[in-house]
Automatic annotation (TrEMBL):
Gene3D superfamilies: 3.10.450.10. Residues 1-58 are annotated as: Disordered. PANTHER family: CYSTATIN DOMAIN PROTEIN, CYSTATIN/MONELLIN SUPERFAMILY PROTEIN. This is Cystatin domain-containing protein. It comes from the Eukaryota. SUPFAM superfamilies: Cystatin/monellin. InterPro entries: Cystatin_dom, Cystatin_sf, MS5. GO terms for molecular function: cysteine-type endopeptidase inhibitor activity. Residues 35-46 have a biased composition (Basic and acidic residues). Keywords: Protease inhibitor, Thiol protease inhibitor.
């Protein structure tokens, strides 16, 4: 009888079986539940103050849903302390996040090129004014930015136009274009 060979990488790609019993036990142990701040976790009997599973009060959820509905996701407030998984949220502090900032700018430039192609125009991207996002296996961006056309107005100026675009940038995949349009009048 021969000895039992250790598993090949293809049989145990994680290397778990090669760990010591103590290490296996540690890896399998459940992490402690996350600690919540006592002030934010207190619940009351009042509907407007009790939180749902996302940490939103009924009043916040109502305000959030109204903003999403009225602005199509482009004008949504920041709600501190709530879960943003699969919720539209403003991307604040973009200047402090260079990779995300570049991704937002790249998606905005790509959207205006698609708009130009679809509408036989020649707008040139100027700057991002605001970006909202839903994160779910990538970012679904709600972008508000300015672009200028070749057309010069009566005063000899090239006035920038505010655009809104919705683009999905999956992790490791091709961007998806939903639309790009001049911003709707409020």
């Amino acid at each position: 009888m021969g000895s039992i060979a250790p598993p090949r990488d293809s049989e145990d790609p994680s290397g778990f079986e090669q760990q010591t019993p103590q290490k296996k036990q540690k890896l399998l142990a459940k992490p402690p539940p996350p600690q919540r701040d006592e002030q934010t976790s207190k619940k009351t009997n009042s509907d407007s103050e009790s939180e749902d599973e996302d940490g939103m009060t009924a009043e916040q959820k109502e305000r959030y849903l109204k903003q999403v509905l009225e602005s199509e996701g482009f004008e949504v407030d920041y709600f501190p302390g709530i879960s943003y998984c699969c919720k539209i949220r403003p991307l604040i502090y973009l200047d402090e996040q260079p990779i995300l900032n570049q991704n937002v700018k790249s998606c905005s430039e790509w959207a205006i090129r698609r708009f130009n192609s679809d509408n036989n125009t020649n707008y040139q991207f100027v700057e991002v004014l605001k970006a909202n996002s839903v994160f779910c296996a990538g970012n679904e961006f709600y972008l508000t930015f300015t672009a200028k056309d070749d057309v010069v107005d009566a005063d000899g100026d090239q006035s920038p136009v505010i655009f809104q675009a919705k683009v999905y940038a999956p992790i490791g995949g091709e961007k998806e274009y939903y639309f790009c349009r001049p911003k709707l009048k409020s």
